[in-house]
Amino acid sequence: MADIEVKYNGWNEWAKYVLKSIERLEHNITTLEDKADINKLEVLKEIADIKREIAMLKTKSAMWGAIAASIPVIIGIIITLIINF
User: Fold this and answer.
1) What pLDDT score was predicted for residue 8?
2) pTM, entire model
3) Are 11 and 18 in contact (CB under 8 A)?
4) Which one has a higher pLDDT value, 57 or 12?
5) Separation CA 12–CA 15 (nearest Å)
6) What is the predicted pLDDT for the residue at 4?
7) Confidence label for 1 from pLDDT (cuts 50, 70 and 90)
8) Cα dihedral angle (20, 24, 27, 28), rounded to 10 degrees?
9) How far is CA 54 from CA 33, 49, 60, 64, in A?
């Protein structure tokens, strides 16, 4: 058994270190993946909020556009009524 340890020239210690490093890196990757999933959900929520706000702004702009378009028509009708009477 001593011959095997000498033959590997301390590889057993390095093997333990490498294994611990791999386990640590695997844990870090898992942690990063979890954080990325949480961030992805937050981003998707923000996108949904922005889409809702855009829809509201489109509705408001359509209403204001209808009001703005009706003003010249109303003025034209009033002028026509004044001229005809």
Assistant:
1) 63
2) 0.56
3) no
4) 57
5) 5
6) 53
7) very low
8) -160
9) 31, 9, 10, 15
Measure the CA–CA gap between 33 and 31, rounded to whole angstroms: 5
Write down the residue that tokens 């855009």 correspond to. Answer: 54
Residue 12: partners with Cβ closer than 8 Å, 6 or more residues away: 5
Amino acid residing at 61: S
Tokens read off for 56: 């509201």
User: d(Cα 63, Cα 68) in Å, to the nearest integer?
Assistant: 9
Residue located via tokens 């301390």: 10
In angstroms, the Cα distances linking 43 to 30, 35, 36, 58 are 20, 12, 10, 22
